[in-house]
Amino acid sequence: MSPSASENKNELSLLALPNIMDKNFQKEEFTEVIKFTPPLYKQRYQFVKDLVEKYKPKKVADLGCADCRLLWMLKFCRCIEVLAGLDICASVMKEKMHMLSPLPIDYLQPSERSLTVTLHHGSVAHKDPCMLGFDLVTCIELIEHLEESELKKFPEVVFGFMAPSMVVISTPNSEFNPLLPGVTLHRHPDHKFEWTQAQFQSWALETAKCYGYSVEFTGVGHPPTGMESVGFCTQIGVFVRKYPQTGESVQSEEPIEAVYKTVFKAVYPSLKDEKFLQNAVVNEVIFTAQNIKRHLMSKHEEYDDAPERESRFQPSVDYFSDYLRKLVVDQTMEPFVNGNEVYIPLVTIFAFPKVNQLCGTFEKLCKLIAGKVTLSSDGSAVVFNTEHENEED
């Protein structure tokens, strides 16, 4: 919506919609139905995801996160360890925030990285210390929803206070609107304004200059052939901070009180957490030891009068036997059967890649499985008792 004449000051003049549209669209009827594939919102999210995959930020905040779809998409980027969302509408976030919760598979197979996802209820016009320290801040289709007073404060909050290494801002390009069926003024009833390419670039360049950022312009949603001057349907500015932020600049102001309300927080299971690492190591040790035990027991049965069974299982046994033979370089690593007990040396188990990768050192393996796995009296081997198995047979 265009501001009144009294509001037409400095940067606020950028809010005014252009009075003169491109001659190609003033009178000419455009009959082609524009359909974006993938849908425009997915292209915007993919743009952010590609940027994340390229620059590998560890901490990412999405301002105006709404239904959390972008956050959900980003949680699968393995470089990210902290995700935060902020929106003025708590009900929309609460309706969809379950998407960000860990799944059962996340507990069964914890990731090597840590991941914490938090949602906050609040305004981008207010400062809150919980938004400090982020590498990337995204504002996807946000600024056009801001009131005039909020837009004034927005640059200081995002670029001055939060001061991330990179900021991505997308907003509708009003020059594209005549190509969209049914759009007369704005694309959404809640939009307070929509900028031309010149207006957005003017605002972005001024903001970048004021806060020590560089900015490059791009977009998603290509115009039809022959109408390239219209620009992208969604225009995007990628801001990069020119100079590293110093501790002094962060602490120069008076301490900021928390004003946002946290409405959701999820801490994902991670192998960096000792309890999840221990559980993963114990399961892998037992799994590996049982495979070795089955191999040993098959050796005892290989001369039994069971040709069908032998021919059916021999290939996998031979493969495992070859692999185990390569690992066992001396007698101390040799698994053995003593009566009803099977002994699998820990050094042999540790030699298996997955166990080795999880533990890193043999000492850590011993520490993690202590009291969780049945060991020999000297603690050098995993022990299985086959007496009950024989009775069942």
Question: How would you describe what is shown here?
Answer:
The structure is a single chain. This protein is 38% helix and 17% strand. With 393 residues, it is an alpha/beta fold. The strands form 2 sheets. An 8-stranded mixed β-sheet has the order 6-7-5-4-1-2-3-8, sandwiched between helices. The radius of gyration is 31 Å and the shape is elongated. The termini are far apart. InterPro entries: Hen1 (IPR026610), SAM-dependent_MTases_sf (IPR029063). Its cofactor is Mg(2+). This is Small RNA 2'-O-methyltransferase. Keywords: Magnesium, Metal-binding, Methyltransferase, RNA-binding, RNA-mediated gene silencing, S-adenosyl-L-methionine, Transferase.
Question: Counting H and I runs of at least 4 residues, what is the number of helices?
Answer: 14
The computed structural class is: alpha/beta
Instruction: Summarize the biggest pleated sheet.
Output: 8 strands, mixed
Order the strands across the largest sheet as they lie in space.
6-7-5-4-1-2-3-8
What percentage of amino acids are in beta strands? 15-25%
Q: What percentage of residues falls in helices of 4 or more residues?
A: 25-40%
**Radius of gyration of CA atoms, rounded to a whole number:** 31 Å
Name the poorly predicted regions. Answer: 1-28, 308-317
